[in-house]
Amino acid sequence: MKKILITGGAGYIGSHTAVELWKAGMEPIILDDLSNSDPTVLDRLEEITGKRFAFYQGDCNKKSLLKSIAEKYKIEGLIHFAAFKAVGESTQQPLKYYRNNVGSLLVLLKFMEEKGIKDLVFSSSCTVYGQPEVLPVTESTPRQEAESPYGNTKKICEDILVDCVKSKMGIRVISLRYFNPVGAHPSAKIGELPLGTPNNLVPFITQVAAGIREKLTVFGDDYDTVDGSCVRDYIHVVDLAEAHVKALAYLNKQENNFYDVFNVGTGNGNSVLEVIHAFEKVSGVKLDYQVGPRRPGDVVKTWADTTKINNVLGWKAKYSLEDSMRDSWNWQKSLD
Ligand code: NAD
Ligand code: WQD
């Protein structure tokens, strides 16, 4: 069975990807320092798949740890999820973000070179596009100056990958630019575990519905959008996880020194109010929300053109917004 090392594999997207890799006949080897995740996820993954995945608790910036994993397992591919992702915090502590997000990629690339590991899937983000002038966003939409150090780490990492491929070090790489990941595993055994007050919309919604937070504030309803609130492309995390499986399969068929980038979204934009109403519909819970001021720096509207990933990787989102809200809600309820 092909062994795939997943850094950040105990996290939100990584844990769902571990399940999809296993379903596709690959064995995930998880490396995570648990800085933003919980060790019980390993038990949950076992409940879902029936398999206890190999797990290393540690920092993927540590080359000695990577080497010891490679001594035990023949690693045939790598998915690099591990990163810090709090946009606001990154503006206060930029070095923390550059060190972890950019530094870890450098260490991993050196490790790949030394061990002859060819295939890498990298977690990038729609944040690299900022507010695009033309919608939907294609992969050739120009990237913009980053709004935050976090966003900049994604741009820098993409550039590092391009340069390494150009240098003919032999690797094959896909950067996946995720739009807004939401939802949870339909089993409600794994999902997003935000530490403290959630920064993102959907965990905030589910926590308000569960009575953990008092009220949701909609950040502005006077934008030039369908109903005045901001628009995003919300992609179910299981669909997103599957895109990594497709990406690895595609990389495997490429020549050495390959790089490409794909948007991962549904292709549809939904407003904040539409998300709230979809949640209310599937949960039967009336959300206490108010409209507040705009959030500084917010992108007004963005959604993906998914033609490239649909045609080249043969991947298409299957879950609807309502499916995502149902699964997020079931996950939230399971935490009580
Ligand atoms: P997450 O925080 O749930 O998962 C990241 C995991 O990496 C965590 O389990 C954390 O403990 C671990 N980690 C962090 N630094 C580490 C290190 N040095 N060594 C080992 N483990 C480390 O986040 P997520 O939402 O699953 O995001 C995964 C990736 O996708 C990140 O690179 C993130 O930037 C990117 N991304 C996320 C979103 C989103 O909205 N969730 C959107 C676009 C891109
Ligand atoms: C979604 C919408 C808010 C909370 C973030 C990161 C970005 C990328 C994706 C990683 C916006 C509105 C939110 C609330 C609200 N991540 N909102 N009330 O802004 O697309 O981006 O996640 O790469 O880098 O910045 O996601 O979930 O924060 O917000 O009205 O309490 O919900 O204004 O329109 P966003 P989000």
From TrEMBL:
GO molecular function: UDP-glucose 4-epimerase activity
TM ranges: none
Gene Ontology biological process: galactose metabolic process
Enzyme class: isomerase
UniProt organism field: Algoriphagus alkaliphilus
Superkingdom classification of source: Bacteria
UniProt protein name: UDP-glucose 4-epimerase
GO cellular component: cytosol
Listed EC numbers: 5.1.3.2
Pathway in which the depicted protein is active: Carbohydrate metabolism; galactose metabolism
Cofactor(s) required for function per UniProt: NAD(+)
Keywords on record: Carbohydrate metabolism, Isomerase, NAD
SUPFAM superfamilies in the cross-refs: NAD(P)-binding Rossmann-fold domains (SSF51735)
CDD domains linked to this entry: UDP_G4E_1_SDR_e (cd05247)
